[in-house]
Amino acid sequence: MTHRNPLTVEPADVDDGPSTILLGITVALLGVLVLAFAGLAVLSPVSLISLAPEWFTQPGTARIIAAAALAAAIGALLYQAVRIAGRGNDDAATWLTLGALLMVPWFSVVV
């Protein structure tokens, strides 16, 4: 019996080609955007705050955004767990599912 690292995922047999390049460009653009906002936060925090829309300053908006972010994170972890389990890597899928389940109690804090 050979020992397999539970955190490794076997690469797919499909060559993505241009979609990999498009994904790289998208990640690079998002990185530049994050750096621009970080630079704006350091140089002029008031300018950064003034970019927020009016509805963002209403009471309760932070809870809604935090709940949506938690739901998206949990959904992403569970989606990835299902994909990895489909490839036969049950150990990594179990850890991802556990991570998603450990995030659930934060809903009681946020909502």
Quick overview:
With 111 residues, the protein is mostly helical.
Number of helices in the DSSP assignment: 5
| Rough outline | flat
Low-confidence stretches: none
Strand-residue fraction?
Answer: under 5%
- Report the count of strand segments: 0
Largest sheet, strands/sense/barrel: none
Q: Supply the helix-strand structural class.
A: mainly alpha
Average predicted confidence as pLDDT: 84
Could you explain the architecture of this structure?
The protein is an all-alpha fold and 111 residues long. 69% of the residues lie in helices and 0% in strands.
List keywords for this structure.
5 helices; mainly alpha
Question: What layout of secondary structure does this protein have?
Answer:
Elements: H1 18-43, H2 45-50, H3 61-86, H4 90-103, H5 106-110
Helix pairs in contact: 3-4
